[in-house]
Amino acid sequence: MTNEANRLLDAAVKRVGLRSSFFPAEIGQDIGLDKHQAEAAARHLSNAGILELGFDCAATFSPEYKKLRSKDSEADRATSRRSRSSVKTRVKN
Fold this sequence. Notes:
Number of helices: 4
CATH architecture: Orthogonal Bundle
Structural class: mainly alpha
CATH topology: Arc Repressor Mutant, subunit A
Distance between the termini: 48 Å
CATH superfamily: Winged helix-like DNA-binding domain superfamily/Winged helix DNA-binding domain
Shape: globular
Number of strands: 2
């Protein structure tokens, strides 16, 4: 993926989350991309299966990407729970 696509992806996830739609040009403007760079980055993300672009250039995250991200966040939560419980047991001893 290109640097612009990575930046756009990170900014979109932080700004709108996985459930909302957004306009890549607006988010691109916030991170220093012009309209054409942001739309090109969105097309690149769409070709990679991360975004679904509408005819008006509105973007939503693909169901596959949402599933992938939810599995990652579940694994992170489980790992943090395990590490917290091991810290508690060490403190008790």
